[in-house]
Amino acid sequence: MSNTRFRFAPSPNGYLHLGHALSALVTWDAAHKLGGTAHLRIEDIDLNRCKPEFTQAIFEDLAWLGLSWPEPVMVQSERLESYAEAANVLRDADLLYPCFCTRSEIAEASTGTDPDGAPLYPGTCRHMSNAERIERLERGDQVQFRLDTEAALERTGMLTFSAVGPTILDRPQIRYARPERWGDVVLQRKDTPTSYHLSVVVDDAAQGITQVTRGRDLEAATNIHVLLQMLLGLPAVTYHFHRLLKDESGEKLSKSRGSKSLRDLRAEGWSPEDVRRAVGF
Fold it and tell me: Cα 45–239–30 angle (5° rounding)?
């Protein structure tokens, strides 16, 4: 099992909290149990929110927890060309189209929601003529590029993926993927030539990742990743979805909600052992 590879891929848009500690410890523990390796990746494509001091803090917090990883560490902001190449594969296959809609226009036209609860894109720009697309692109209108999910699924047919649970040592089970629940997802954003969905599948393949551990909040997103892996000819991986840590109000711990960081806990006198106990290790 020495070729088994896991990864932990935080975004440096804030300090790590106990939820991140749980995810990291699940990943390193699984790698240890399966005789594999755990790799660290920095997902910093959100250039407006990610900061170097947060990246440095990730290294410090994980080392404080007693974790180590192979060098060099993959950094997404250094790989934009790779994501653009992957997007061009989809564009050449006529599966990527420009979208000029604003959030308010999508919310007004939408008749449903995606698995994250956001307004489901109604496919407005998918039906735009080539002449109008060219005119708007030449005019310099703000644009993002979406996957034509219906056309993509016509090419792939029914999709499945392998998942293990509730423990990493359980026998993998085959699940059916339902990416159509997301509609035409954005693969190249207005502010950067990629997206989380596109970057993560390209990077997993580049790092030779065979096992992905992620929180249950990302279980639905996996359906899109399975579709992109098939479209781009990338290796399939096995997934494990771990539990989430929640606060007193029942909400998932998050940076946006101001959940107390590992640095805060360390300043209060917590030890790495305290953190491990707090998250169930």
Answer: 95
For the whole model, what pTM was predicted? Answer: 0.95
Question: Residue written as tokens 């390796």?
Answer: 37
Per-residue three-class SS string for the chain: CCCCEEEECCCCCCCCEHHHHHHHHHHHHHHHHCCCEEEEEECCCCCCCCCHHHHHHHHHHHHHCCCCCCCCCEEHHHCHHHHHHHHHHHHHCCCEEEECCCHHHHHHHCCCECCCCCECCCCHHHHCCHHHHHHHHHHCCCCEEEECHHHHHHHHCCCEEEEECCCCCCCCEEEECCHHHHCCCEEECCCCCCCHHHHHHHHHHHCCCCEEEEEHHHCCHHHHHHHHHHHHCCCCCEEEEECCCECCCCCECCCCCCCCEHHHHHHCCCCHHHHHHHCCC
Of 167, 163, 172, 150, nearest to 222 (Cα)?
163
Structure tokens at 126: 């998918």
| Bridge partner list, 174 | 162
- Smallest Cα–Cα separation from 200: which of 227, 181, 179? 227
If phi > 0 it is left, if psi is from -120 to 50 it is alpha, else beta; for residue 159 that is beta
Give, for all 281 residues of the chain, the pLDDT tens digit: 469 999 999 999 999 999 999 999 999 999 999 999 999 999 999 989 999 999 999 999 999 999 999 999 999 999 999 999 999 999 999 999 999 999 999 999 999 999 999 999 999 999 999 999 999 999 999 999 999 999 999 999 999 999 998 899 899 999 999 999 999 999 999 989 999 999 999 999 999 999 999 999 999 999 999 999 999 999 999 999 999 998 888 888 887 777 899 999 999 999 999 999 999 99
